[in-house]
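Run folding on both entries below.
>entry_1
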Amino acid sequence: MAPAARPPFARPVGCAPVAVQINVQAFRDSLPAEVAEAAARLRRDGSVGELESAGGGVQAVVRDGQAVFQPWVGIVERAFTGDCDCAPVGDELCGHAVAVALTAFDTDVVFASAATPPGADPVEPERAAYRLAVQRLAPRQLADLLAEHAVRDRLLATRLLHEAGMLDPADQSGLADFRAVLRDASNATSGSRWGISDVEAAGHRLAEEVEILCARPPTIAMLDLVEESIRVWDELAGHLIDAYYERRTDPEEIGDALVDAHRDLCERLDLEPGEIDDRLTELVRGCVHGTVDLDTYADLLGDHARR
């Protein structure tokens, strides 16, 4: 982890311990010429990906030729600090971290006055073991292993392609696949030979397919489909409610997963509170079995939250 030069680029705003101002010009002036030029080249080439908040700082994927890095920058012990996969030598920030920092400055990102760099928090033992295993694999071994499992696991495959920037939001194939799942779920109780296990199976498949769908870049069309899945499940849930002693799945187990996915999509799409409220009004109207818990959306609704 490399701190920038020592001038206090960050200072608290008023009395708030989490809001800081960055002296951007002082930061630029402190950069070695080669680092500044490398950062400028990366930004000019569009190599800096979408900024993400992390631990009070910000990170982004940066593509440098054939190499890919994910530098993080933030305020640590009052010094503007960077952490990057390229492992820069010495105390200076690397060009990847500087490119992320300058992009963040240009978009008015708010930095916490005491950020936590990646890897500073304790890692769960099980996750730590997997991370250690990954570090012991050669890149080709890891690539082969991921590709092999992605072929068998559609969620992993979707997340892998999304993280690699290889999923086009305009691609309609995922939406078409999900519409077919909705049709199947809607028909789970058609005919005369269905049972409660069919309802449960339809619900679990809905939850699994919603998770796969939402691993894609978010779109309004995707949100519409998730809302339809909630309506479909609410109707099916009535059968589980009536079959209290026979069912093995509680209606909330499926409903909560669908509603949580819907709430996360609203946040990822950065919808206005008023639009979220309008959508929830329609959704609640069509869900007579209480599948939608409005408290789930309280932080997104703001003044529109219902009391």
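>entry_2
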Amino acid sequence: MPSRRTPARPKAPRLPRFSPTRLSLYIFCPRAYYLYYDQGLRWGGQTAGFALGGSLHRSLQLFHDRGGAAQVPLEELLEGLRERWNPSVYASPEESQAHLAAGEAALQRYYAGETEPGRETVWTEKMLQHRYERFILWGRLDRLDRRPEGSLEVVDYKSGRLETSEAELHGSLALRIYQLLTARTYPGAAVHASIHSLRSGHRATLSRTAAELDRVEQEVIEIAHTILDDEMMAATPGEQCRECVYPRVCPPGRRWLAEHALPAGRPGLPSGGETG
């Protein structure tokens, strides 16, 4: 007699995954979100600044993975940047050399201010995620530290600016999500967040209470559910159209730009870019 096989259980459908970048693009404009993620119309290309930032991230990841300043001499940190440098992504040898010099200067500043008694780097460049009923929230964090008193601190590197502020930290959806993900991954731990401006060494830090993180969570859930329930993904024309590359395939955005042309001699905003 033929053997009876137990019917295989149908696989549960995979939940949609939302990162800070995806959520931010929907807030920017639902139509841009649709064109980028659903239609695959990628915008922008790798800029010199973006390439420099990636090189610095990789160098600092290796630096901390090997024990930081206690184990790695400054020259080894700089040599790691030089060994992994890719001049082909820059427009000319002169541009490549200028960005390499800027990267070396940033790492020298970072090295000089890196040590703090009692601070420990838990890990670098790691993805955290948290599952909700209808979606998964995820984000890739640059670095997580344990502070001397035992609390945790999310450290986000910025390679393109000289300074930051607490107001920027309050307004950053990405930092709010990184703090939330860390708090859900390490229950009971106090979680701080900071932005480290690599060009200057300037750093701003803030903390959020458990109640504040609960409000962040509700904000994220509302945005994600709005995306999941949005069947139209209609354009929301406005000033953001000046930063968008999609008006050529978005009639509402194209009309808005025609109706709100800038006065002669006033520069427009540069084109934006989506990176993940």
